[in-house]
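Example 3.2
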Amino acid sequence: MLFRNNRDTERNELLHSKIAELERENNHLKEENSKLRQKNDEYADGAVMSDLMHHLTENLTNACQHDLSSLQKDVSDNVGHLEEIEILNKNNRSNALGINEEIGEILEIQQALVSNITDNYGSVSQLNAGVGTIGQVIDLIKDISDQTNLLALNAAIEAARAGEHGRRVRRRCRRSS
């Protein structure tokens, strides 16, 4: 875009330069016209003056037509560039609006994620409390199991002392542990 602006600036400077050149030519032609008037006064013959005026007018017309054609082309080119710039600006505006909509959607998703994370944090806290309770129950079961094993061991020892009758008790103890 900056490149185009520089190009447009260069073209504008070129146009100003051509306008200045035309003004110089116009001033020159005015001087020539003034000289011709002086010569007209000097020459009594109107035919010479008419030829000079015709030649001068023809040169002036050709120069003006050439410069005017060049200026028209430059103006037309600049208008074309301005139209291209306008299209690019419209596209940029459209893209910016699309990006704004996408940012809005991203913010909504982000807010939903924050809400889900907050909810999940509460669930994890409850789960941690439940895990603590389960750990206490497991410790209680382990204590009961240890006591049961001690009772079974004591029963086995007593059964060994009791003989045959003790063997039957020992078998029952093995089945229960």
